[in-house]
Amino acid sequence: MTQIRGVQSWCLGVALHLILAAALHQGLATVAPPTAAPHKDPGRPEKGSYVVTRSNGTACLLASMGLQLNVSFNSQNKTVQEVVNLQPNMTKPSGSCDSDRASLLLTTDAEKTNLTFIFTLNATSNKYHLSEVSLSADWPDMKEPLSANNRSLDYLRGTFGFSYMCHEEQTLSVSQDFSINTFQLQVQPFGLTGDQFGAAEECQLDEDDMLIPIIVGAALAGLVLIVLLAYLIGRKRSHAGYQTI
């Protein structure tokens, strides 16, 4: 019986290590938000749907996402970090589409904000990515208007004719003073047929989120099986000890 208890303890330890490793992997996979304390917390942003059309009226870029802007700026002789949710009902989409370049411009008159996403397509590999983001903002608390831009990004990578999807929150770092939190994002800048998204390619964060329950479930199932086998083996040996010779 001591041997059986030892096997059960070992099995429990293995299962706990697997669960801990899965949880640690999930924690490392999550993109960390900026470390500076926000000026205020606006809560989770509302998801908006945005369409860019060609001159003939056909859709050439689709995006569905909640957007949260993290901006550091000077206000009253001190630096503050403002967290602002983009309100879909107050945001006007526009943009353009070429064979290897597509842009989405989101404008809010009330907040005097212009946010631009530029996607680039590699015609050889048929892969696209978010290559540039720019922001211009003139909010009431700002000492002077803010302008931020990065033309060497490599986010939201997808395949021509497919959409890129990420339900988990992501943080896209643009510059030292500006980053974007995305929520329930799906975007397709190339290869649209009609006004519907193509088949989705899921981000690594979503895949990791699905992987955790599978690992935990497999660990627990393995633990139950090993304990059951140990019990049956121990019981068989116990019965064998009472047999007469």
Task: Summarize this structure briefly.
The protein contains 2 helices and 13 strands, in the order αβββββββββββββα. It is α+β, with helices and mostly antiparallel strands. About 8% of the residues have low confidence.
Q: Can you give the mean pLDDT?
A: 81
Q: What would the CATH topology of the domain at 48-206 be? A: Porin
Sheet with the most strands? 7 strands, mixed
Q: What's the CATH architecture name of the domain at 48-206?
A: Beta Barrel
DSSP E strands, number? 13
Family: Belongs to the LAMP family.
Domain Lysosome-associated membrane glycoprotein 2-like luminal: 45-192
Disulfide bonds: 166-203
Keywords: Cell membrane, Disulfide bond, Endosome, Glycoprotein, Lysosome, Membrane, Signal, Transmembrane, Transmembrane helix
Give an overview in words.
The strands form 2 sheets. Strands 1, 2, 3, 10, 11, 12 and 13 form a 7-stranded mixed beta sheet that branches. Strands 4, 5, 6, 7, 8 and 9 form a 6-stranded antiparallel beta sheet that branches. The longest helix has 38 residues, at 204-241. The protein has 2 helices and 13 strands. Helices cover 27% and strands 41% of the residues.
